UniProtKB/TrEMBL annotation:
Coarse class of the protein's main subcellular location: endoplasmic reticulum
Protein name: Protein-serine/threonine kinase
Entries under SUPFAM superfamilies matching the protein: alpha-ketoacid dehydrogenase kinase, N-terminal domain (SSF69012), ATPase domain of HSP90 chaperone/DNA topoisomerase II/histidine kinase (SSF55874)
GO cellular component term of the entry, any: endoplasmic reticulum membrane
Keyword field contains Mitochondrion: yes
Membrane-topology descriptor: Multi-pass membrane protein
Similarity remark: Belongs to the PDK/BCKDK protein kinase family.
EC number: 2.7.11.-
């Protein structure tokens, strides 16, 4: 069915081209390289950057399009997944339609196009989540256990890691065109980012959501030196801390909602090591049972209400809701690993949970290329 749909929507020559480019070798870049290269956004450097992306992006996008076509358990033919596959094929076709980039005019035209590609892919995560939910509903009917879905977890890890890389490369190139960059910023990278300040901002955002949902929210205490800085991507860090704090606030709030005790604060500790900057988010929200710990980094597990169960008519509407898909932790871990860090969660059932976010401060590790 998927193959038929593919031939109907896309020409054979395009499909052959995708197969050819999907076999080519990807080239990873490091945070340090992006920073050093982007620190001088001359016309010559922008041209070199565009020429690199002109070759690199079709390879990465073709690989994902091929994978989307060959997923187990019939995931490839779910309506939401077909829509994502079509976005990838459209983007591949757009990239291949641009001839060699030889001068500044070519580069400007290419930059506008990749900007549009980035927007086209904005809703890939919720749309894939919807596809997985569509699959889950079918499997529930056939009693297939989650432990059998290991291949799907592995695919989603590769798929989302690749997406982080594609968006980082496009965003970095586009941002280098900004005529008024923020001080100490090279594209998306802040060369003097204060993790404490980013943690403060992410915590305020997470607390606002908790207040909106529950009418009250536990306090948050942050320990660390606000003047300590290191080079990193603030949007990535904000996303990770926001997710961890949001989970902690929800656990504490639900545990103490009907209690006469005062809810204990969520604590964030920022430690500056030689290799890593580590951020610990600590709560007393009752913890996670040991049997549940292996599930928290999978894409098929969530303790929140499933938006699809509440709105079964959503179909393939353009969803931007994230809560309830259970994607926060696994995607946060991918963001951490993208620049050589990691995310670990340690829990004491009956007490609370500690999440350790390790960020590599050397900036030398290459992108992990799935």
């Amino acid at each position: 069915m998927a193959a038929k749909k593919l031939c109907e929507s896309f020409s054979k020559s395009l499909i052959d081209d995708v197969q050819k480019w999907g076999c080519m070798k990807q080239t990873g870049v490091s945070l340090r390289y992006m920073m050093e290269f982007g620190s001088k956004p001359t016309a010559k450097n922008l041209l070199i950057s565009a020429q690199f992306l002109h070759k690199e992006l079709p390879i990465r996008i073709a690989r994902r399009a091929i994978e989307l076509e060959n997923l187990p358990y019939g995931l490839s033919v779910k309506p939401a997944v077909l829509k994502v596959r079509d976005w990838y094929l459209d983007s591949f076709r757009d990239l291949r339609s641009i001839p060699e980039i030889k001068n500044s005019d070519d580069e400007k035209e290419f930059t506008q196009m990749i900007k549009a590609i980035k927007v086209r892919h904005n809703n890939v995560v919720p749309m894939m989540a919807l596809g997985v939910q569509q699959l889950k509903k079918g499997l529930r009917l056939n009693n297939v256990g989650y432990q059998n879905l290991h291949e799907i977890h592995q695919f989603l890890d590769r798929f989302y890691m690749s997406r982080i890389g594609i968006r980082m490369l496009i965003g970095q190139h586009v941002e280098l065109h900004n005529p008024n960059p923020l001080p100490d910023c090279v594209g998306y990278i802040h060369t003097k980012m204060s993790p404490v300040k980013v943690a403060e901002s992410a915590s305020e955002d997470a607390r606002a959501i908790c207040l909106r949902e529950y009418g009250s929210a536990p306090n948050i205490k942050i320990y660390g030196d606000p003047s300590f800085t290191f080079p990193y991507v603030p949007t990535h860090l904000h996303l990770m801390v926001f997710e961890l704090v949001k989970n902690s606030l929800r656990a504490v709030q639900e545990r103490f909602m009907d209690s006469d005790k005062v809810a204990p604060p969520v604590r964030i500790i920022v430690a500056d090591g030689i290799e890593d900057v580590t951020i610990k988010v600590s709560d007393e929200g009752g913890g996670i049972p040991r049997s549940g710990l292996p599930k928290i980094f999978t894409y098929l597990y969530t303790t929140a209400k499933n938006p699809l169960d509440e709105h079964p008519d959503l179909g393939t509407a353009d969803l931007v809701t994230m809560a309830g898909y259970g994607y926060g932790l696994p995607i946060s871990r991918l963001y951490a690993r993208y620049f050589g860090g990691d995310l670990q969660v340690i829990s004491m059932e009956g007490y609370g949970t500690d999440a350790y976010l390790h960020l590599s401060r050397l900036g030398d590790s290459q992108e992990p290329l799935p």
